[in-house]
Design goal:
Length: 134
């Protein structure tokens, strides 16, 4: 429960233009998810909140398809933190529960339409690893 409170407090930080701080916050979210998964604790509450943030960033990434490269790179940094972390959650979880499904949302379908070749390889590799685990 303490982790949920910490994550709620982190949401009060609004580093809209500071990529490194936002990335650090996302890594903190992912660390809590991994701790829960490795201790075989339900990740539902954490997964739901974090996957909503991922969906929003994936939507921004899709919309920014033809925009400035710096904005796309900033968004991709956050998206790749989520992708790598979720893959690790799936691979290291002792057992998969319905709450794991919350980590997979329509943000991935948006990414498939928005990604360039190198980004697409990352997303497809992630999907392959998750499907193999399921």
């Amino acid at each position: 429960m303490l982790q949920v409170i910490v994550l709620d407090l982190l949401n009060f930080l609004k580093p809209a233009f500071i990529t490194s701080q936002r990335a650090l916050i996302w890594k903190g979210h992912m660390a809590f998810l991994l701790m829960y998964a490795q201790k075989n604790v339900d990740i539902g509450v954490l997964a739901e909140k974090f996957s909503c943030a991922f969906r929003e960033k994936a939507k921004e990434f899709l919309v920014s398809k033809n925009e400035e490269m710096i904005q796309r790179q900033t968004l991709w940094t956050l998206l790749s933190i989520y992708i790598d972390g979720v893959q690790e959650v799936f691979e290291t979880s002792y057992c998969l529960y319905p709450s794991h499904e919350k980590l997979l949302n329509d943000g991935f379908s948006m990414l498939l339409r928005a990604c360039r070749e190198s980004e697409l390889r990352t997303v497809l590799s992630f999907l392959q690893a998750v499907l193999a685990r399921i």
